[in-house]
Amino acid sequence: MENMRENFLWGGATAANQCEGGWKEGNRGLGTVDVIPWGENRFPVMRGDMDYRQLSEDSYYPSRDAIDMYSHYKEDIALFAEMGFKCYRFSFSWSRIFPTGEEEKPNEEGLKFYEDFIDELLKYGIEPVVTICHFDVPLALVEKYGSWKNRKVIDCFMRYCDAIFRRFRDKVTYWITFNEINMLLHLPFMGAGILFSEGEDEKQVKYQAAHNELVASAMATGLAHRINPDFKVGCMLAAGNFYPYSCNPEDVWEGLKKDRDNYFFIDVQARGEYPAYARKMFEREGIKLETGPEDYEILKENTVDFISFSYYSSRCASTSEEVVLKSTSGNVMKSIKNPYLKASEWGWQIDPLGLRITLNTLYDRYQKPLFIVENGLGAVDKVEEDGSIIDDYRISYLEEHIKAMMEAVDEDGVDLLGYTPWGCIDLISASTGEMKKRYGFIYVDKDNEGKGSLKRSRKKSFKWYKHVIETNGAALK
């Protein structure tokens, strides 16, 4: 097996809403994540079933302070540099730059923070990979317009994109428009700030919001290329194939349909038009999209340069009621238990070969460069008496997935830009809001209740990943 190409982008990934904190600093406005609580009401709020304004006053919102990267970013970036990161994928907080989303001019304090942050990365030769919207909408846009239900939000998003593309024209090359855009279908409030009113046709609302996001993504891609033709703009999905649970053709068909639910967004962003199966589904379900006169032309002319994705596990699909009852516990996208796979403490099924299968499926489908921007194992870490953290389980998970990734590149010919494992530093879990569900190479002293010193320390996996990067993957052969 050959090594990965010389300029392969090894790194790590985080999101502002899970690590940045500083929610009252620098004139930042409130964002959707600031009203998503920890505890039993978390999923009802994330799904859009429960209005966050009904929450009790003593609710705890873990992302407001998170791990306070706002104050610690120099220390954190120095640790990333020590590991040898070639790139770092992170997101901007939209409400830090446009506090209500409707200002005519951006908040200079917000832009300056990200400029200093990016300059710190560049000082160490780390390529910034910026997610423009990572589960993050200014709360004022939710309250005034219903977020992405309303086309007016496209204009607000474009003002935001214009500000950041111009400010970072010479400092950022890689941009991702929307994080896990398909999550809109599963957790509408977390994914896109969508709250449902009583009696509202939820499917109609979701696909209208999806259309508005897809048009915004295409417009942003076009704008980026006009401002700097060297910009590379990508889309992003929560990936992982649905395997048929059995060779019953009905199970095979069910798996294909569930895969299409995820590919729907990327089909539009990569190919520039709604696929035939989606148009038929709209017809069948009575979904009528409100569209602008140039929407379809905008989608057609502004396809993405690369496709990025998260991969944590594969999934299974079946039409058998008895089998469907055996769903895994921990996933947002529920899946039937695969009897051939082990699972993490949170019920995520561990399937390294599934990453190779996903890479091949996406590359066969789109023939565009791919970028793995999330992959990792959420686990409880124990701090030993001497302060060390022996996370061999994480090393084992990542090693097997990286090997599968390298096989997809070397043996299958997949064009892959880079690999940024998720939560390279411990952060707030997007799904559960916990701190104890840790992903990082760097431990952060904080617990589920928000207590702790925030002290950073290196886990065993820190040194291991450093060696993987410095050998360009050869250490794993």
Key structural traits:
13% strand; 477 residues; 16 helices; alpha/beta
Task: Give the SSE layout.
Elements: E1 9-13, H1 16-19, H2 42-47, H3 69-83, E2 87-91, H4 94-97, H5 108-123, E3 127-133, H6 139-145, H7 152-167, E4 174-178, H8 188-192, H9 202-227, E5 232-239, E6 242-244, H10 249-271, H11 276-285, H12 295-301, E7 306-311, E8 315-317, H13 321-324, E9 342-343, E10 349-350, H14 352-366, E11 370-374, H15 392-410, E12 416-419, E13 442-444, E14 456-458, H16 460-470
Parallel strand pairs: 1-2, 1-12, 2-3, 3-4, 4-5, 5-7, 6-8, 7-11, 11-12
Antiparallel strand pairs: 9-10, 13-14
Helix pairs in contact: 3-5, 7-9, 9-12, 14-15
Structure description:
There is one protein chain. The protein is of the alpha/beta class and 477 residues long. Helices cover 39% and strands 13% of the residues. The protein contains 16 helices and 14 strands. The strands form four sheets. It has an eight-stranded parallel β-barrel, surrounded by four helices. Strand 9 and strand 10 form a beta hairpin. The longest helix is centred in the middle third of the chain and has 26 residues, at 202-227. It is globular. The relative contact order is 0.14. The mean pLDDT is 96.
